[in-house]
Amino acid sequence: MAIKLARKSFILPSKELTHWFPGHMSKGMKQMEAKMSKVDCVIEVHDSRIPLTGRNPLLRDVITKNKPHILVLNKMDLITAEDRRNAHQKLLNERVADEIIFTYCKNEQSPGIRKILPTLQKLLKRKLSISVETGRTSDINLMIVGIPNVGKSSLINMLRAKHLSKGNAAPVGAVAGITRSLQEKVKICENPKIYLLDTPGIMIPAIKDAETGMKLAACATLKDHLVGPELIADYILYWMNKEGIYSYVDAFQLPTPSDDITEVLTRIAISQSKFLSIRQGNGEKRSYPNFKHAAEQFIKAFRTGQFGKLMLDSDLM
Ligand SMILES: Nc1nc2c(ncn2[C@@H]2O[C@H](COP(=O)(O)OP(=O)(O)OP(=O)(O)O)[C@@H](O)[C@H]2O)c(=O)[nH]1
Questions:
Q1: Å from CA of 274 to ligand 1 middle
Q2: For 247, left (φ over 0), alpha (ψ -120 to 50), or beta?
Q3: Which CATH class is domain 21-198?
């Protein structure tokens, strides 16, 4: 059922997007650097669907100043076990962090969540040994960092639920940019006492090419309106066709695979009876398929795993 791809490249809708770094992010970055001296370990959270794309290359050596560093690849439910193994190996070879843990942040009993405390105990062995003077262990301060919408707040809430049986302390949302400033530290464990600082999502300072930008947009780390839902849907369609994955055909009951986003969105809008009524120059009203609605449905299907478990960086492994 393979189809010939007509398009090979994408252009981001605005030049500014390649350096999209709003004020609250540079403020957040400064706040993070100011607090770094009190931090024992940095937990960097990223999206499993793009383990190589969009991570901040300066994080390890410059921003976190070589603190013990755990890379948490969240949303592991959206990729396959094989992609997980390949990404793990590749990132280990590149020594991007001291430890790499895959998590699913909708269940506090999932294996990745259970692994975090023992990993901290291993990395911070010295700090966690019982002091001869006080007879107790030192408090541990963690900082959680990462680009927007990867699940930083969800991870904090899971750790609190697992180790303290407490409810949510950090707000969670499906759109990027929910946490906008450095938060007060949150206790996530009583014994040993572990505190976590939630930080606002900080985008990479420069998006190096359109493919990177489109992957970040597809995973909702950029707000949809910055790129536009039709363009994001077009990229997802392009990527799936390129990989020979045609699950969108069944998901939206299309007759065949297609490389034409207008055709795909038209069919989705018609099948869901979503039209826009637009008045013509002569005063008459005409109905047009609602492309925006169709594009949003297409993107949602990708993001919720309806098209299957898809890792956008699989071509980079
Ligand atoms: N499928 C899936 N979705 C997740 C997982 N963890 C979090 N999410 C969803 O991802 C979205 C973002 O989660 P948040 O915890 O708000 O992410 P954040 O990194 O704190 O976001 P900002 O505050 O915008 O930087 C929400 O819709 C969560 O429900 C996961 O393991 N799997």
A1: 29
A2: alpha
A3: alpha beta
Could you read off the pLDDT of 113-129 as tens digits, one per residue? 999 999 999 999 888 87
The domain segmentation of the chain, as residue ranges, is 21-198, 210-316
Per-residue pLDDT tens digits for 91-109: 999 988 999 999 999 998 9
Return the CA Rg of the chain.
22
φ and ψ of 88, to 5 deg? -60, -45
The answer to whether the CB of 203 falls within 8 A of the CB of 21 is yes
- pTM (2 decimals)? 0.89
Domain boundaries 210-316, CATH class: mainly alpha
Q: How far is the CA of 151 from the centre of ligand 1 (A)?
A: 3
154 is an annotated ligand-binding site residue: yes
Q: Return the beta strands (E) in the chain as ranges.
A: 41-47, 69-74, 99-102, 140-145, 186-189, 194-198, 275-279, 285-289
